[in-house]
Amino acid sequence: MTDPDATMEGQALEWREGDMPYSTQFGDHFYCQTDGRLECGHVFLAGNGLPERWPSEGTFRIGELGFGTGLNACETWRQWQGADRGKAILHMTSFELYPMTAAEIEKALSHWPEIDRERQSLVAAWPEAPGGIIDLALSETMRLTVVCGKAEDTVPAADPAFDAWYLDGFAPSRNPDMWSLDLMQSVFDKTKEGGSFATYAAAGFVRRNLQAAGFTVERRPGFAGKREMLCGTKSALRA
């Protein structure tokens, strides 16, 4: 994996409507302009059958393509804390090319008072010069790992056996490399039998790449009037 002492050069951001980050490199917002937190619940949690699938013991592992502002991590952690999860541990691993600074995360997530506690904990633990492998024990039952670098290099090097995936890169039309067949194959290879994925993306080539990798893919209604999103599973028969 990447050098844990390495740091990454951040991408250029514009701030729209005060606290909404926009990537000038990829020409895209970091989250849904309607409400990114509610989109996380609709697309990534519900699309992966969460919180219903969370166990009462052991470790549940979520992989994520694109950490961005940390919104998905904070909202997932918020819902995890409100669930009857017994002694289980949640471990989220995100793969991110351009990690934000703590100040940028703070500004972006201040939009949602519902995740104030999670945001404050994340920002307090975030390194001054983020890069390499960021591994944070945010609580006794929540561990966050952010692997900085190109996902096509870092995902194949990750430990296998993810229970669920959040595929949350920039829009396929803006960042097609994040949705390539090679990367979708790596995601499939690192998924447990019976594991799942969900994404807001519904582009035809994304669906075809996920199917070619081995996932059973389902179309569902998207968030906030978007016609479709994709989710699916890795069945034992196709492993």
What does this structure look like?
This protein is an alpha/beta fold. It has seven helices and eleven strands. The strands form two sheets. An eight-stranded mixed beta sheet has the order 6-7-5-4-8-9-11-10, sandwiched between helices. 40% of the residues are buried.
- Find the structural class using helix and strand composition: alpha/beta
The count of strands amounts to 11
Percent of residues in helices comes to: 25-40%
Low-confidence stretches: 1-8
Strand content: 25-35%
Tell me which oligomeric state these chains represent: single chain
* Shape descriptor: globular
How many separate helices?
A: 7
Order of helices and strands: EEEHEHEHHEEHEHEHEE
Alpha-carbon distance between the termini? 25 Å
Major sheet summary line? 8 strands, mixed
Backbone CA Rg: 16 Å
The strands making up the biggest β-sheet line up spatially as 6-7-5-4-8-9-11-10
Arithmetic mean pLDDT: 88
Task: Pick out its properties.
239 residues; alpha/beta; 8-stranded mixed beta sheet; disordered N terminus
Write the layout of secondary structure elements.
Layout: E1 13-16, E2 20-23, E3 28-29, H1 36-47, E4 59-65, H2 71-81, E5 89-96, H3 102-109, H4 116-125, E6 133-139, E7 142-148, H5 151-154, E8 162-167, H6 181-189, E9 191-199, H7 204-213, E10 216-220, E11 229-233
Parallel strand pairs: 4-5, 4-8, 5-7, 8-9
Antiparallel strand pairs: 1-2, 2-3, 6-7, 9-11, 10-11
Helix pairs in contact: 1-2, 3-4, 6-7
